[in-house]
Amino acid sequence: MMEWIPIIFVAFKALVLCTGMFFAVKWHYDQGKKGKQIVEEMRMVMRAGGMVTAVFMVLLLGLGLATFVLGKTLGLDLTLP
After folding, report:
1. Which of 11, 21, 40, 80 has the fewest CB atoms in 10 Å of its CB?
2. pTM of the model
């Protein structure tokens, strides 16, 4: 019985990987058929995501500066070693 376990596991792994590859290829093929409308929607989503990221970075920079100013005001030693 012990010598059948690797054969069963390898067969199951091959079946799962082949099924996954089939659906991955099918999904990419279907995405290519959708056309330019999806590309335009994706561009709008990417632009909105970039704007959210930019706002987040500006707020993060502001928070860091406010923390530094507050630390200096409270007399904390903020010099690097």
Report:
1. 80
2. 0.49
